[in-house]
Amino acid sequence: MCEGLRVKIIEQSQVSPPPRSTSPTSLPLTFLDLPWLFFSPSQPLFFFDFPFPLSYFTAFTLPNLKHSLSLTLQHYFPFAGTFLPSPEPSKPHIVYSEANSVSLLVAESADDFNHLCSNHARDVNCFYPLVPELKSGTKELALMAIQITVFPGSGICIGLAYLHVIADGRTFNNFMKTWAAYSSSQASSFPCKSLPFYDRSVIMDSHGLEGVFLKQWRRKRTSFIDDTKVNSSLSDLVRATFLMDPTQMEKIKRFIVSLCREKNQSQPVHLSPYVLTCAFLWVCMLKTHQITSNEHVHKDPAYFGFIAGGMTRLQFPVPATYLGNCVGFGRGSAMRDELLGEDGIVAAARAIGGTIKKLDKEMLDGAEKWVSDWEEIYGSELHVVATWSPKLKLYETDFGWGKARKIEEISIDKSKAISLIESRDVDGGIEMGLALPHKKMDTFTMFFNQGLNAIS
After folding, report:
1. Is the pLDDT of residue 2 over 60?
2. Could you give the CA distance from residue 226 to residue 424 in angstroms, rounded to a whole number?
3. Which of 77, 120, 173, 203 could be joined to 22 by an S-S link, Cβ 3.0–4.6 Å?
4. Is the residue at 195 inside a domain?
5. Catalytic, out of 49, 111, 123, 164
6. What is the DSSP string of 373-406?
7. DSSP label at 32?
8. For the whole prediction, is pTM greater than 0.90?
């Protein structure tokens, strides 16, 4: 158990874009932003090796990080703005003025950096002192906060908290890579084609979804604001990371194909590395829940939720540098007794792959049910939700110290989601981050390892 990681505050400041580099701006939320009003903030932590003393960090590294952040904010200035959940009949919107800034907290820790960066089960409470807190007022909320924690002689942790209404994973990734490029002197200036695109008119609401989501938001808008604070009392949860490498993915694929041929069944329509990983993960999670809860196997639906990129799926073009949300929601469904049977992984792959194919054909078909569908599964122990995406290549973020040692998403503790990002060290591999009660983590680990060995 973690006895409670302690950090010593070194500095607390506000970072703004360079003077006169930006103009006051108001950005209304589009129908693709609005569903994110129902989700708590994202809280990613980036751990980097940094074998230098604190004096070196404060004298050289910190000024560079603050200056490069300021340069980045001249392009991504909405991140320094605030979210206004306006009363009816106005729409919620994002506002930036020259008085706005991003809160930057700098801290020092004497904790074990290597322990925090490991893959084995660790107490989730060890991580919360590294997470910045978003400030909220009576009428507005900060969109982003940053905390940099130094482990002298060992490493640096860059922790962020941001509201999803400002950015999907793609936009956040562009922000981080821009900051890293300025910090590592890889970019003295950016070509126009790389700058964020703000024009919200490119998001066309041909299905009338804005009204649907606004009505749902106005009906229950309290949970979003109340959920912006860090929860530091998750005493029984541990965090661990599991790796699925391409060799294991290929073995799972061969197993599924062989089983379908043996039983004269059609193969799942889509067996990508992501589908194979998620299918295996889904079955392991269901088995874990069944064993640890002592439940009988019921013939009821189980769901697997995930985020689907919209850049290639929407019927209208959206620039790759568009600043905002351009994703949809997918929810695969299969009967629980089927998923727990001998053909469970086939059923899981069929459900997830089939959902992806439907999204490929028409991402917005049934989108009016996105919020209600996800409310049914988000935070549930009976269903599984995957967040982030291996396609983002988050480990390519380099501030000049090399690729991150480890990346963790802290918000999964409360949401009970699973983070999926690319592997740091295995080309084509996928890292899965989980937070479970200790007993469940042991059981999941057993099913995960036994399942891979059985397929091998």
Report:
1. no
2. 34
3. 77
4. yes
5. 164
6. HHHHHTT-SSSEEEES-GGG-GGG--SSS-S-SE
7. T
8. yes
My answer on whether 252 and 171 are in the same domain is no
Is the Cβ–Cβ distance between 78 and 21 less than 8 Å?
A: no
Euclidean distance between CA atoms 222 and 219, whole angstroms: 9
- In order, the DSSP letters of 291-360 are HHHTPPPP-SEEEEEEEEE-TTTSSS---TTB-S--EEEEEEEEEHHHHTSTTHHHHHHHHHHHHHHHHH
CATH number at residue 121: 3.30.559.10
Give me the residue label for tokens 């751990």. 47
What does pLDDT average to over the chain? Answer: 92
Whether 425 is a known active-site residue: answer: no
Query: How high is the pLDDT of residue 230?
Result: 46
Q: Is residue 435 part of a domain?
A: yes
Closest CA to 2 of 109, 115, 119: 115
Which of 301, 386, 309 is closest to 340 using CA atoms? 301
When computed from its CA atoms, the radius of gyration of the chain, rounded to whole angstroms, is: 22
Structural domain for 163, as ranges = 7-226
Given the residues 227, 245, 337, 398, select the one marked as catalytic: 398
Per-residue model confidence (pLDDT) at position 33:
97
Rounded Cα distance between 268 and 431, Å, is 23
Q: What is the pLDDT of residues 303-350, one digit of tens each?
A: 999 999 999 999 999 999 999 999 999 999 999 999 999 999 999 999
Nearest to 180 by CA among 18, 323, 72: 72
Burial of 327 (0-12, 13-18, 19+ CB in 10 A): buried
> pLDDT for 397-409, tens place per residue?
999 999 999 999 9
| One domain for residues 206 and 339 | no
Residue 48's identity, in one-letter code, is F
- 2 within a domain of the structure (yes/no): no
Instruction: Quickly list H helices, 162-267.
Output: 169-183, 209-219, 222-226, 246-262
Residue with tokens 């295995």: 426
Token pair, residue 211, equals: 């009204």
| Angle CA 37–81–136, to nearest 5 | 60
Does 129 share its domain with 243?
A: no
Query: Beta partners for 420?
Result: 432
C-alpha closest to that of 323 among 85, 91, 81, 135: 81
Residue 220 included in any domain: yes
